[in-house]
Amino acid sequence: MEDVVSVELKRKTIVLGVTGGIAAYWAAEIICALKNREADVHVIMTNNATKFITPLTLQTLSKNKVVTDMFELPVNLDIGHITYAKRADLILVAPATANFIGKIANGIADDMLSTTIMAASAPIIICPAMNDKMWANPIVKENIKKLKKQGYNFVDPEYGKMACSGMGIGRLTDIDLIINKLVEIEK
């Protein structure tokens, strides 16, 4: 018997956006969790994300080409960001850095991930991950508030040990909570 989560994400196309923070390595686990639920996962990485985890790793796990360059010549005549925006049932950005949240909150579309989000009508789920001081910054809070007002969904970070060795709120939240949010929104 299939579990409820599997049924609800089975054959759903999920675009996973990965931004450039230390938590980018969790993208591999997120892909595995989604693939275990039979979702079709397409990854778009920012240039900075490629400094933390390789596109090859995420391509191997997702079984789909990973996009990193907005200006890469397409294999077919589709316009990349429009194709991904149309194809997506859900767009998940995990991890989302303070920088990326600020970009989309202010309408900056200067890479494949931000342009795809600007062209999308699918629900967008953002999972911030950053230093606790950055998470507490009033500008970050204002950007998140602005995006929530526009209908973006968030899975807030959790408290725990930070990459900078301190403790605080800013760690990417538990993958099961992220998956549960996707299921909740897809219903």
Q: Main β-sheet, in a few words?
A: 5 strands, parallel
Strand and helix order: HEHEHHEHHEHHEEEH
Number of helices: 9
Broad shape:
globular
Number of strands: 7
Quaternary structure classification:
single chain
β-sheet strand percentage? 15-25%
Structural class: alpha/beta
Work out the helicity level. Answer: 40-55%
Detail the poorly predicted runs. Answer: 1-6
Strand line-up across the major sheet: 2-1-3-4-5
Distance between the termini: 20 Å
Mean pLDDT, as a whole number? 90
Radius of gyration: 16 Å
Task: Explain this structure.
- There is one protein chain.
- It is built from nine helices and seven strands; from the N terminus they run αβαβααβααβααβββα.
- Residues 1-6 have low confidence and may be disordered.
- It is 42% helix and 19% strand.
- By secondary structure, the protein is an alpha/beta fold.
- It has helices at 4-9, 26-36, 55-62, 80-87, 98-105, 112-119, 132-136, 138-149, 175-186; strands at 13-18, 40-45, 90-96, 124-128, 153-154, 158-161, 167-171.
- The radius of gyration is 16 Å and the shape is globular.
- The protein has a five-stranded parallel beta sheet, with helices on both faces.
- The two termini are 20 Å apart.
- α2 packs parallel to α3 (55-62), α4 crosses α6 (112-119) and α5 packs across α8.
Q: How are the SSEs placed, and which strands pair?
A:
Blueprint: H1 4-9, E1 13-18, H2 26-36, E2 40-45, H3 55-62, H4 80-87, E3 90-96, H5 98-105, H6 112-119, E4 124-128, H7 132-136, H8 138-149, E5 153-154, E6 158-161, E7 167-171, H9 175-186
Parallel strand pairs: 1-2, 1-3, 3-4, 4-5
Antiparallel strand pairs: 6-7
